[in-house]
């Protein structure tokens, strides 16, 4: 098996910054949405979307792209037979699959996960980029599930643009069989980009931190070099 090498995970990158800007949030969202749409279109759900399973490219323009990793919990939600494709009948009482912090409330109920569940995980990732999730300090799978059920979309998206709340409202309207309106979700995120004049070429927040750190080290290096030169001149 040959696998592409990627850069750092979103989990690692987000630790560098206290809180993400809306610019970084919506661009990450567009990247995740694109990956999920491609995966869903070929008949699979991921079931474990989280920052640790998302990574930037290794170098050059690839560092602008967020890649989806770890398909160990992925499941085919369609059945292909004799040239036809139909959706699997959802099971009841399934085993828990996912990560408690980011899985959908539906996953906590041991219900079959479909395309909307991946998008709920995406929404939780985006919401957390702007501040702690309401269940951030809650421990225990069952307890976290209860808090998710009790958390309003307004509270979940309190630090995000209204368009993120609109996405949550759309997800509420879906069930296992419903195909999400990926274009609607994209348009909501793109509307924020347009309204706030964000560009895809803008640096992500973690790139700004890296650049600032590099500049600080460079200035220290120049100051150190200048001091040494001055000392040598005096010494001579």
UniProtKB/TrEMBL annotation:
Listed InterPro entries: CK1_Ser-Thr_kinase, Kinase-like_dom_sf, Prot_kinase_dom
Compositional bias per record (Low complexity), positions renumbered to this chain: 224-236
SUPFAM superfamilies linked to this entry: Protein kinase-like (PK-like)
Comp. bias intervals (Basic residues): 211-223
Protein kinase domain boundaries: 1-200
Keyword Transferase among record annotations: yes
Keywords: Kinase, Transferase
Transferase listed as a keyword: yes
Superkingdom per UniProt: Eukaryota
Region (Disordered): 211-236
Any one GO MF annotation of this record: ATP binding
PANTHER family: CASEIN KINASE-RELATED
Protein name as annotated: Serine/threonine-protein kinase
């Amino acid at each position: 098996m040959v696998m592409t090498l990627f850069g750092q995970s979103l989990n690692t990158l987000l630790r560098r910054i206290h809180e993400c800007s809306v610019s970084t949030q919506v661009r990450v969202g567009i990247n995740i949405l694109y990956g999920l749409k491609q995966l869903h279109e070929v008949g699979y759900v991921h079931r474990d979307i989280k920052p640790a399973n998302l990574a930037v490219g290794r170098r050059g323009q690839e560092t602008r792209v967020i890649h989806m990793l770890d398909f160990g919990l992925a499941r085919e939600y369609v059945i292909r037979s004799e040239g036809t494709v139909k959706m699997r009948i959802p099971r009841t009482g399934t085993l828990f699959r996912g990560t408690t912090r980011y899985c959908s409330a539906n996953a906590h109920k041991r219900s079959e996960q479909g395309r909307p569940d991946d998008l709920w995980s995406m929404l939780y990732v985006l919401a957390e980029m702007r501040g702690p999730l309401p269940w951030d300090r809650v421990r225990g799978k069952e307890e976290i599930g209860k808090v998710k059920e009790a958390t309003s979309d307004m509270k979940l998206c309190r630090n995000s643009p209204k368009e993120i709340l609109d996405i949550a409202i759309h997800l509420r309207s879906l069930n296992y069989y419903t195909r999400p309106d990926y274009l609607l979700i994209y348009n909501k995120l793109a509307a924020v980009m347009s309204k706030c004049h964000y560009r895809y070429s803008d640096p992500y927040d973690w790139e700004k931190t890296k650049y600032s750190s590099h500049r600080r080290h460079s200035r220290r290096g120049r100051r150190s070099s200048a001091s040494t030169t001055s000392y040598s001149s005096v010494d001579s």
